[in-house]
């Protein structure tokens, strides 16, 4: 029994990995045998190693630029989502306010490039397939930005592997997988956000690895530098797309594990020192990123100072901060006895009534009041006119007849054409048994006066906020039953001409209860023009919070099915791609599809990794240690880190309700390539460079305990795999670059899966 | 922070007060600082009291059990109307019915009815007054006795978990005085049984855990077997019981993982451990579960409202079924209903409503309810001259036919438009009429096999398995268990599948009803379906209807609540009409119990983190490993038990109600007891008494204040408006 306990205790330590000083000593004493063995295999000296490495890096980088930049000007037409992101760049250059669910950085970068090229943002990228040259857009310049970043993914992947202590062939293998991935090429050659996203994400991984290797030289300048760089890259990733939060999670887990080990008393840190570590990381990885993230929004608001297509998403207060906004010159105070039209905020219909009555009995057998119908109607019509009258019991006689109406005032609404008052009562509405019916009652009939009184409650209103057209959103709450005037996108049957149902919502606080007064009838716009107000100022943080909330809620609201949206489960297996662009005359098309070979290597590596760790756990449990410690630690720490990266950039998509696309998998696929290289190393090299972390002392040379010995066969095998990958890449290149066009057999030859829905297959 | 700074190697200051090691040995497993057993020091105040004290390990539970029966039975017949979901009749009348829950609970309800002499004639409509001949009091008493046994079980479980006696009493009181537990136990509902079996599962598990040092002893076998039986029972009442099963499963996996790593254990012993668990915790519960279905099928031998959920052959074997009127062989002009032969399959159905997307033609679905919209007439293609008055002509294998929907006069139709839910398959709709239409209305009948007949040329009702191949596309008519959204009334989607997979049972159909005036009824045959087939079929059907119980966004269900409201007791549930003259019951927990339960889970989590951090700094908070293990063990049983019974409801799409939280509540109550022990162990005896005494009083006082909502209010609800502690409780309007 005691034997068991001891081993279990040891187990804990082993999980901690290559951290503790004790263990390193232990390993050293253990490894001489293996050392000799591996040394025999060493073919090159460290100095030459460095030269070879640089040569390989150079070669890979050049190839990468070639693959990304080949024929970059083709097609000279708007492709897929360039429609959005090109448009947004134009908006920046025109300084008109727009709304998008993604944070502003990537679009600011496009705008910056456009500005440098002297582009003025005149073109709005309206439709896929529109001609760039005709519209005089410097689209090649815009595309060069993502293509450059996309090309740099290859060297960064290479450096990540080198820094992680893998031999050149392994690093080249990882870089090669990235190099030949058709999906990454397609996605990064166009005016899309993913090049920036993946680039910054890889920078984050790279700088964190650099930082982690310096852990024994804590608080040195280098250490601080890489910590802050990690934070900055993290922040830039998140400023491109909110997916950056997954990168945060990846780094977060690594940092927590690291901190947990620092807390271990055997590390010999005092609580004071530990706190220093803790605060250093929170400064580097929380506060720095936050500040940078906010900075882009500050820039965003500073540039976009003119009213534009994004106005309608924002609150009236926000809109008033924009130049030329409708609020600033078309908003009037509403006075008692004005006649107005009232519009529902969410569904844009007018509050409407006509002389027809509700039918006595509905289809489901329920009975109505048979009163005059109230509906929602989308078009201008005199039946939308309502006169606002004061509710006598609440009306202060001191106030003039035509006083301005304020937040909280009680009113009656008189339907002008039928001379009747709006009323609601405890009768179920036509479509919803839970909600109250609205109807009208003749102005002469005072018997139900209580049921015709409504309170105007302006959103964010104070007691003396004035009720204004356009600018004030309000809820109309019934005095008697406290329901709010409400409507929803559901048509009534033929007896109401399929107009929209209006009813009383018992939950009167919901945002769907918001209405606004559209205009005051008969008030001549020029007559009442007030001196042009200075546009309103709002605190930056308030604007930011409002926009951030809207981004999140609209992002999760993007559920409208798209013909090319796919579920996450399909992605790793490359079940389906996305058609980006087609040209009938030449039978050319761009179809986003990964290189099946590299893509499936990625999945295979994931499976092998999970299998190996599970087998290792089981055999350790039985006291068998199948993997030598340095290799095992490397497998757990380095490959495990990549695995966590893949996991966090992939699994959360399963919980998302929005419609998802294959390109959402690109950050994860890069992680799977890094993992694939680590697994390749584990399987075919079976040794590593160790240790790779800088030692605590400032001595230049780190004593090498282990050098990965790479056999010739391994190198040949790695190159062969990359060779196959390149063949696949070339085979699918016509779909990646959009040229040349393919005949039917050409398309069908490439259609390996029934679900790859290429065009021109017939 | 001060706590961290002290780098600690020796014994921390607190431990001077600890009971010495020897005393500790007295604790059963040397894990807890259990209070010393009472030893009479002052002899002879009264010998009876002494006697009671001496046997307090028996007298205390007996006392609480009596109280428990009192709280559950008190005024049980006060409300003479059907409260909420009360029901019983099907087993008494032996009519086949269908329900989403497994049969054990309902069979016990049936047994209660049988004992009470109920004849099955009353319909049990919610809110109706019980007639004189229904002895609902006895039925309620029978079922609430299940609820009453929860109390002693809670006591003994706490003892098995090594709680002190005071703590065990606290746990018992919490279970005894929770108004929600009382209220739900008093009616003819399944929940009292579900709760009881959840309690027995935890009890057996703790008993088994305490036997772990004597593997393969008689007691060890007894408790292992009982655990298995118990999880079998709890899963046979409601599928929620699977969460309790999962708890036992996780415990077992951890246990086996430890055994796997114990190199000193001979391999053969390790295998024996595995086999014992497989036998008792997998095979045994499944047997229990299936046994309940065997009894279910054995009792329900008459045709009833649930027929349509089952396969045609099963229906034919029920008494009172009229399938024997079917003519044997299918002919042109016959009117038929078609049953899908996949597990959970329904009848081919169409109705006037159209698809909102795709072709926007008339919907075709699979439906389990029998009505005239399931009737189809077999006709020849339009190009072939044929009239109803012609000579009888039988349909042959390989014939092209047109299926004509009898009530709407349209034809079964398919085309290359993606189906609404399973977008990879083609849509099936109803289109055209007798004269209008195209080739897309024609289907080829392919006979797969026949149960009795070797000759596969003709199509026989009930026994022949057929497929319908679309003549143009070559796809096969298929219905699996994909449910259409609200616009399709949650019926099952029908599609056309391009892949020609002969083995795919979802493309197999049989003729269930068959009418043809020109043909005589077929010969009488004894149809018999296999049990295992019926068992699967019924379970798949239960699963499908359970999934279809999603909240309807357009309908506000005042009874439903969401999981996030439960732990803080933000909602109650009105169990009956709220009129002034009705005896009203409000399903609402005892706030002290619920709130302290949820709080205890949070406190446990915080203390766990605290101890872990301190361990990393090598502080010694637990004098022995066994105590730390016990701390973790409680966390696993109570904490993970709570999570397993709570989290799934957050993920589930189906509509949820307050009573779904009741099993989880038990785990939080157990946690309260543990934390009280954990934090009061260093207190002097007297202080301890005061702490526990205050809690006893508090929970009792609050119970007394709220007792009427569980015992029934015969006065207007407005009189208890002072009980409305939270604005979200709809106890008064």
Automatic annotation (TrEMBL), chain A:
GO CC, any one term: endoplasmic reticulum membrane
Record's catalysed reaction(s): a di-trans,poly-cis-dolichyl beta-D-mannosyl phosphate + L-seryl-[protein] = 3-O-(alpha-D-mannosyl)-L-seryl-[protein] + a di-trans,poly-cis-dolichyl phosphate + H(+); a di-trans,poly-cis-dolichyl beta-D-mannosyl phosphate + L-threonyl-[protein] = 3-O-(alpha-D-mannosyl)-L-threonyl-[protein] + a di-trans,poly-cis-dolichyl phosphate + H(+)
Gene3D superfamilies reported for this sequence: 2.80.10.50
Pathway: Protein modification; protein glycosylation
Pfam families hit by this protein: MIR (PF02815), PMT (PF02366), PMT_4TMC (PF16192)
Domain MIR intervals: 331-391, 462-520
Membrane topology, record value: Multi-pass membrane protein
EC numbers, comma separated: 2.4.1.109
Feature: compositional bias, Basic and acidic residues: 8-40
Record's keyword annotation contains Transferase: yes
GO molecular function: dolichyl-phosphate-mannose-protein mannosyltransferase activity
Swiss-Prot/TrEMBL keywords: Endoplasmic reticulum, Glycosyltransferase, Membrane, Repeat, Transferase, Transmembrane, Transmembrane helix
Annotated region described as Disordered, given as residue ranges: 1-44
Localization: Endoplasmic reticulum membrane
Parts of the chain that traverse the membrane: 55-73, 105-125, 137-160, 166-184, 191-212, 224-257, 278-299, 597-615, 635-653, 665-684, 704-732
Function of the protein: Transfers mannose from Dol-P-mannose to Ser or Thr residues on proteins.
Family membership noted in the UniProt record: Belongs to the glycosyltransferase 39 family.
Name of this protein: Dolichyl-phosphate-mannose--protein mannosyltransferase
Gene source species: Ambispora gerdemannii
Upper classification of the organism: Eukaryota, Fungi, Fungi incertae sedis, Mucoromycota, Glomeromycotina
TrEMBL record, chain B:
CDD domains noted in UniProt: beta-trefoil_MIR_PMT2-like
Record's keyword terms, sorted: Endoplasmic reticulum, Glycosyltransferase, Membrane, Repeat, Transferase, Transmembrane, Transmembrane helix
Catalytic activity: a di-trans,poly-cis-dolichyl beta-D-mannosyl phosphate + L-threonyl-[protein] = 3-O-(alpha-D-mannosyl)-L-threonyl-[protein] + a di-trans,poly-cis-dolichyl phosphate + H(+); a di-trans,poly-cis-dolichyl beta-D-mannosyl phosphate + L-seryl-[protein] = 3-O-(alpha-D-mannosyl)-L-seryl-[protein] + a di-trans,poly-cis-dolichyl phosphate + H(+)
Subcellular location as annotated: Endoplasmic reticulum membrane
EC number(s) per entry: 2.4.1.109
Uppermost EC category: transferase
Transmembrane segments: 58-75, 138-156, 168-189, 220-253, 274-301, 592-613, 633-655, 661-683, 690-706
Domain of life: Eukaryota
Biased composition (Basic and acidic residues): 14-24
Entry-linked Gene3D superfamilies: 2.80.10.50
Pfam families attached to this UniProt entry: MIR, PMT, PMT_4TMC
Domain MIR: 327-381, 392-448, 456-514
GO molecular function: dolichyl-phosphate-mannose-protein mannosyltransferase activity
Pathway: Protein modification; protein glycosylation
The keyword Zinc-finger is assigned to this record: no
InterPro entries per UniProt: ArnT-like_N, MIR_dom_sf, MIR_motif, PMT-like, PMT_4TMC
Region (Disordered) location: 1-31
Membrane topology (UniProt): Multi-pass membrane protein
Gene Ontology CC annotation, any one: endoplasmic reticulum membrane
Family: Belongs to the glycosyltransferase 39 family.
Function description: Transfers mannose from Dol-P-mannose to Ser or Thr residues on proteins.
Name of the protein this chain belongs to: Dolichyl-phosphate-mannose--protein mannosyltransferase
Organism annotation: Ambispora gerdemannii
């Amino acid at each position: 029994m005691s034997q068991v306990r001891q081993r279990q205790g040891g187990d804990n330590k082993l999980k901690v990995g290559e951290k503790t000083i004790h263990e390193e000593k232990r390993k050293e004493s253990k490894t001489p045998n293996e050392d000799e063995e591996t040394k025999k295999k060493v073919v090159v000296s460290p100095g030459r190693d460095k030269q070879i490495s640089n040569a390989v890096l150079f070669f890979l980088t050049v190839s990468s630029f070639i693959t990304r930049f080949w024929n970059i000007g083709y097609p000279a037409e708007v492709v897929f989502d360039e429609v959005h992101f090109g448009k947004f760049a134009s908006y920046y250059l025109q300084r008109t306010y727009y709304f998008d669910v993604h944070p502003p950085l990537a679009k600011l970068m496009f705008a910056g490039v456009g500005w440098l090229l002297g582009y003025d943002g005149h073109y709005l990228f309206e439709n896929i397939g529109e001609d760039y040259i005709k519209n005089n857009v410097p689209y090649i310049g815009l595309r060069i930005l993502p293509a450059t970043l996309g090309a740099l993914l290859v060297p960064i992947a290479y450096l990540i592997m080198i820094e992680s202590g893998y031999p050149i062939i392994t690093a080249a293998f990882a870089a090669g997988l990235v190099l030949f991935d058709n999906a990454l090429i397609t996605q990064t050659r166009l005016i899309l956000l993913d090049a920036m996203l993946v680039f910054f994400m890889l920078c984050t991984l790279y700088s964190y690895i650099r930082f982690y290797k310096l852990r024994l030289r804590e608080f040195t300048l280098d250490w601080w530098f890489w910590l802050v760089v990690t934070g900055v890259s993290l922040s830039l990733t998140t400023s491109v797309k909110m997916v950056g939060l997954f990168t945060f999670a990846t780094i977060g887990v690594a940092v927590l594990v690291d901190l947990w080990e620092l807390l271990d008393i055997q590390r010999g840190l005092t609580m004071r020192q530990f706190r220093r570590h803790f605060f250093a990381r929170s400064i580097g990885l929380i506060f720095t990123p936050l500040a940078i993230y906010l900075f882009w929004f500050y820039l965003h608001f500073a540039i976009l100072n003119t009213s534009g297509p994004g106005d309608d998403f924002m609150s009236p207060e926000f809109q008033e901060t924009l130049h030329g906004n409708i609020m600033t010159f078309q908003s009037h105070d509403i006075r008692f006895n004005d006649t107005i039209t009232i519009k529902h905020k969410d569904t844009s219909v007018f509050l409407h009534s006509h002389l027809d009555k509700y039918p006595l009995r509905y289809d489901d057998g329920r009975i109505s009041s048979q009163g005059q119908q109230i509906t929602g109607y989308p078009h201008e019509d005199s039946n939308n006119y309502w006169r606002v009258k004061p509710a006598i019991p609440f009306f202060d006689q001191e106030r003039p007849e035509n006083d301005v109406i304020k937040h909280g005032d009680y009113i009656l609404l008189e339907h002008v054409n039928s001379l009747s008052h709006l009323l609601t009562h405890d009768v179920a509405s036509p479509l919803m048994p839970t909600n109250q019916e609205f109807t009208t009652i003749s102005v002469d009939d005072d018997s139900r006066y209580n049921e015709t009184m409504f309170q105007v409650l302006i959103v964010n209103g104070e007691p003396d906020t004035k009720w204004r057209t356009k600018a004030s959103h309000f809820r109309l709450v019934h005095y008697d039953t406290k329901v709010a005037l409400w409507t929803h996108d559901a048509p009534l049957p033929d007896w109401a001409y399929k107009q929209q149902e209006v009813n009383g919502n018992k939950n009167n606080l919901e945002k769907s209860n918001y209405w606004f007064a559209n205009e005051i009838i008969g008030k001549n716009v020029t007559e009442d023009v007030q001196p042009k107000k200075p546009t309103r100022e709002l605190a930056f943080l308030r604007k930011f919070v409002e926009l951030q909330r809207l981004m999140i809620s609209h992002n999760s609201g993007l559920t409208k099915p798209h013909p090319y949206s796919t579920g996450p489960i399909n992605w790793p297996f490359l079940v389906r791609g996305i058609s980006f662009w087609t040209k009938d005359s030449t039978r050319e098309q761009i179809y986003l599809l990964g290189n099946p070979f590299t893509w499936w290597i990625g999945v295979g590596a994931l499976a092998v990794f999970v299998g190996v760790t599970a087998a290792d756990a089981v055999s350790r449990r039985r006291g068998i240690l199948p993997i030598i410690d340095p290799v095992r630690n490397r497998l757990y720490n380095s490959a495990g880190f990549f695995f966590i990266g893949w996991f966090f950039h992939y699994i959360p998509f399963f919980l998302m309700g929005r419609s998802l696309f294959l390109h959402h998998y690109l950050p994860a696929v890069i992680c799977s390539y890094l993992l694939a290289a680590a697994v390749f190393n584990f399987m075919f090299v079976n040794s590593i460079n160790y240790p790779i972390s800088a030692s605590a002392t400032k001595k230049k040379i780190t004593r090498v305990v282990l050098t990965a010995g790479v056999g010739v066969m391994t190198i040949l095998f790695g190159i062969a795999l990359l060779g196959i990958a390149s063949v696949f890449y070339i085979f699918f290149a016509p779909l990646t670059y959009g040229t040349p066009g393919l005949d039917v057999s050409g398309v069908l030859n490439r259609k390996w899966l029934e679900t790859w829905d290429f065009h021109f297959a017939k | 922070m001060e706590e961290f700074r002290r780098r600690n190697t020796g014994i921390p200051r607190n431990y001077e007060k600890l009971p010495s090691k020897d005393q500790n040995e007295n604790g059963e497993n040397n894990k807890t600082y259990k209070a010393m057993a009472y030893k009479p020091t002052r002899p002879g105040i009264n010998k009876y009291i002494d006697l009671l004290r001496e046997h307090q390990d028996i007298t205390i539970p007996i006392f609480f059990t009596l109280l428990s029966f009192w709280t559950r039975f008190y005024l049980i017949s006060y409300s003479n109307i059907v409260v909420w979901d009360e029901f019983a009749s099907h087993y008494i009348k032996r009519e086949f019915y269908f329900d989403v829950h497994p049969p054990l609970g309902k069979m016990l309800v049936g047994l209660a009815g049988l004992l009470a002499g109920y004849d099955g004639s009353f319909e049990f409509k919610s809110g109706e007054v019980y007639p004189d001949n229904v002895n609902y009091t006895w039925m309620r008493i029978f079922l609430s006795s299940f609820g009453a046994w929860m109390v002693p079980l809670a006591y003994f479980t706490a003892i098995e978990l090594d709680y002190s006696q005071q703590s065990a009493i606290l746990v018992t009181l919490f279970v005894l005085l929770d108004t929600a537990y009382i209220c739900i136990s008093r009616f003819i509902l399944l929940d009292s049984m579900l709760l009881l079996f959840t309690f027995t599962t935890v009890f057996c598990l703790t008993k088994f855990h305490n036997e772990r040092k004597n593997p393969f002893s008689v007691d060890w076998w007894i408790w292992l077997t009982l655990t298995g039986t118990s999880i079998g029972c709890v899963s046979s009442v409601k599928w929620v019981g699977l969460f309790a099963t999962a708890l036992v499963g996780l415990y077992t996996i951890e246990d086996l993982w430890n055994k796997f790593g114990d190199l000193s254990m001979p391999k053969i012993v390790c295998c024996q451990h595995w086999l014992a668990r497989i036998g008792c915790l997998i095979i045994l519960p499944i047997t229990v579960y299936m046994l309940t279905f065997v009894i279910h099928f054995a009792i329900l031998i008459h045709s009833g409202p649930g027929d349509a959920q089952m396969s045609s052959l099963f229906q034919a074997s029920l008494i009172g079924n009229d399938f024997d009127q079917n003519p044997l062989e299918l002919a042109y002009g016959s009117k038929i209903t078609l049953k899908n032969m996949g597990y959970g399959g329904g009848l081919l159905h169409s109705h006037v409503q159209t698809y909102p997307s795709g072709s926007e033609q008339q919907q075709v679905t699979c439906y389990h309810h029998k009505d005239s919209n399931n009737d189809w007439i077999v006709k020849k293609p339009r190009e072939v001259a044929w009239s109803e008055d012609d000579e009888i002509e039988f349909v042959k294998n390989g014939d092209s036919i047109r299926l004509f929907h009898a009530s709407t006069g349209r034809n079964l139709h398919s085309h290359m438009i993606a189906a609404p839910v399973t977008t990879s398959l083609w849509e099936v709709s109803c289109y055209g009429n007798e004269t209008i239409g195209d080739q897309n209305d024609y289907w080829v009948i392919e006979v797969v096999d026949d149960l009795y007949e070797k000759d596969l040329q003709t199509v026989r009702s009930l026994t022949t398995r057929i497929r319908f191949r679309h003549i143009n596309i070559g796809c096969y008519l298929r219905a699996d268990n994909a449910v259409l959204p609200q616009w399709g009334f949650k019926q099952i989607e029908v599609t056309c599948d391009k892949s020609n997979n002969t083995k795919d049972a979802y493309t197999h159909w049989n003729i269930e009803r068959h009418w043809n005036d020109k043909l005589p009824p077929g010969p009488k045959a004894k149809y018999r379906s296999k049990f295992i087939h019926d068992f699967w079929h019924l379970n798949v059907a239960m699963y499908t209807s359970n999934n279809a119980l999603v909240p309807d966004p357009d309908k506000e269900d005042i009874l439903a609540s969401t999981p996030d409201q439960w732990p803080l007791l933000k909602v109650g549930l009105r169990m009956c009409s709220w009129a002034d003259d009705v005896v009203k019951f409000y399903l609402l927990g005892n706030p002290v119990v619920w709130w302290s339960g949820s709080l205890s889970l949070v406190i446990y989590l915080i203390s766990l983190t605290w101890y872990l951090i301190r361990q990393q700094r090598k502080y010694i908070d637990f004098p022995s490993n066994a105590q730390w293990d016990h701390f973790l063990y409680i966390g696993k049983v109570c904490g993970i038990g709570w999570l397993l019974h709570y989290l799934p409801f957050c993920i589930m799409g189906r509509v949820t109600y307050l009573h779904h939280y009741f099993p989880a509540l038990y785990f939080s109550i157990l946690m309260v007891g543990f934390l009280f022990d954990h934090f009061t162990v260093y207190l002097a005896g007297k202080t301890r008494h005061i702490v526990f005494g205050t809690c006893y009083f508090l929970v009792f006082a609050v119970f007394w204040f709220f007792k009427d909502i569980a015992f029934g209010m015969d006065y207007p609800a407005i009189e208890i408006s002072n009980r409305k502690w939270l604005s979200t409780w709809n106890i008064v309007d």
